[in-house]
Write a structure and sequence with these properties.
317 residues, mainly alpha, MetI-like fold, two-stranded antiparallel sheet, 13 helices, 2 strands, 72% helix, 1% strand, flat
Length: 317
């Protein structure tokens, strides 16, 4: 009786054939990974050279007393102590935090109100016109915005002319030259610029909200205010988080508008960290202190933005 044929596959035949699909899949994954790394390599190199390298260099310079020309001497943390103790530098940080109210809170509030109105009249031409008008400041360069508003807020500018025309001569003043109104006036410029971006983002978020939710709310007897707080506001939480993040960073790192409109004056009433770093580095030649201030500013931005992100986006995530 002949021996039964063996069912085992000979070496190098069936087992290898069955493993070939797995090998090919692994090769495709490796090839895809290599392609992905090759595609992101230029951006990673660019980011490393123009972002990470200056940060590391600033951190190094912040530990030295250096004027940019002569030999640097070791200073340790003295530059950081100066940044956090000198009234002028601490005041600049305080001004930046005050600008958050104008650059972030006010634009987001106005954008929420305007977006809710535009959504209610979305089918009309007025909605399109409103979106266009409110977004125009966003496409204007910040330097141009600062120059335009400097003219409007001058002693003979449009704002004072309007006040005088309605009999409020006593209220007219050089808004950017008054110690009490200079910083709020700069804040108004920033709010005017930021509203357009916030409006577009929030309107985009409102388009994702299911219209049936509003219909159900109306059937239950909810009014416009109740609809806003129960449906609209939770529905655009992600967009509000993005708006708040972008505008808070803009407030803390502000430079263009302040430099063009007031250059930090009158006195130091509108001095902000970005402008103070510029003066320290290029006018007072204190490279170490300027570098330390830039590192402190970066830490402040991170310390404010990360909790803000967790607060505004935590529930949905």
């Amino acid at each position: 009786m002949p021996a039964p044929a063996s069912t085992a596959s000979p070496p190098g035949s069936g087992g290898t054939a069955r493993s070939r699909p797995g090998v090919r899949a692994r090769r495709r994954r490796v090839g895809g990974s290599l392609l992905a790394y090759a595609l992101i390599a230029p951006a990673a190199l660019f980011y490393s050279f123009f972002v990470l390298r200056p940060i590391v260099a600033s951190a190094q310079y912040s530990l030295y007393d250096w004027n940019g020309v002569t030999t640097a001497t070791w200073a340790g943390i003295d530059n950081y102590v100066a940044v956090l103790s000198e009234p002028k530098l601490v005041g600049a940080i305080g001004n930046a935090f005050e600008l958050i109210l104008y650059f972030s809170v006010v634009p987001v509030g106005i954008a929420l109100f305007a977006a809710n109105l535009i959504r209610s009249i979305a089918a009309s031409r007025l909605a399109t016109a409103a979106r266009t008008v409110l977004f125009i400041p966003q496409v204007i360069p910040l330097v141009a915005a600062g120059i335009i508003w400097s003219w409007q807020l001058s002693s003979d500018g449009l704002v004072n002319q309007i006040l005088r025309s309605v009999g409020l001569d006593a209220a007219a003043r050089a808004w950017l030259g008054d110690f009490d109104t200079a910083l709020p006036a700069v804040g108004v410029i920033g709010a005017w610029v930021q509203v357009g971006l916030c409006l577009v983002l929030i309107l985009a978020g409102m388009t994702r909200i299911d219209a049936s939710l509003y219909e159900a709310a109306r059937i239950d007897g909810a009014g416009p205010v109740r609809e806003f707080f129960s449906i609209t506001l939770p529905g655009v939480r992600q967009e509000i988080a993005v708006c708040a993040t972008v505008t808070v960073i803009s407030a803390l790192a502000s430079f263009d508008i302040v430099y063009v409109a007031t250059q930090g004056g009158p006195g130091d009433s509108t001095l902000v960290p970005g402008l103070q770093i510029f003066y320290l580095a290029f006018f007072e030649r204190e490279i170490g202190t300027a570098s330390a201030f830039s590192i402190v500013l970066m830490a402040l931005v991170i310390a404010v933005v990360l909790p803000l992100q967790r607060l505004l986006r935590g529930r949905e995530s």
